[in-house]
Amino acid sequence: MNRLKGWFQMKFSRELVVIAIATTGIIGAGCAKKKPATVAHDTPPPVTQQQPAAQPAAAPARAENNVPAPPPAARPNMPDAATRARIDQLLAKIEDAYFDYNQHTLRPDAVKALQSDSTELRDILKDYPDYKLTIEGHCDERGSAQYNMQLGEARAESAKNYLTGVGIPGQQLNVVSYGKEKPVCQDATEDCYQKNRRIHIVAVANQTR
Fold first, then answer.
1. In 3D, which of 183, 179, 187 has the Cα closest to residue 196?
2. pTM to 2 decimals?
3. Long-range contacts: 129-132, Cβ < 8 Å, 24+?
4. Domain boundaries, the chain
5. Which of 153, 158, 161, 204 is closest to 178 using CA atoms?
6. Which CATH code for domain 81-203?
7. What is the pLDDT of residues 29-59, one digit of tens each?
């Protein structure tokens, strides 16, 4: 009986030892798997830069009370008094253009006369489309009245063609022939005849603004 009791005690002691060893292994394994504590560093965490908040788009400007802007003032079609005075000065400086006997072709001296200040005159007239000039055609006393009326008109047309060629609008240039009805010289001499074979440019009378 004592031997049986001693066998049970020995067997129980061995089981206790086995249990103790197993428990120690489990605890050791758990400790081995545990990660070491992370050592804190002094480096601050990165700062995330905040983007500025998007501003709302500006609303398009509106005309007050939706009233449309007034249109630009229209340029007048007729020159004022100061401009008309300047036109008269230019016309006075442009000499009469003279022609050979029984001819309506512009001579070189006639072209030179028409060139005088015609560029400035052109620039003024183009700004005032309703303002007009008249080109008068004249002849000497020789020949019939009917023939000289035709010749005077042909001379005025030659001058008009030249002036439109330099840029003066043709619709602002009237043509009229006086034939031999308005001579500037009454003597029956060649010198006097030459003075009467001419064209003369004037502003149309009674033009209002």
1. 183
2. 0.64
3. 129/77, 129/169, 129/171, 129/172, 130/77, 130/78, 130/207, 131/77, 131/78, 131/79, 131/84, 131/87, 131/172, 131/203, 131/204, 131/207, 132/172, 132/173, 132/174, 132/203, 132/204, 132/207
4. 81-203
5. 153
6. 3.30.1330.60
7. 444 444 544 444 445 555 555 555 556 555 5
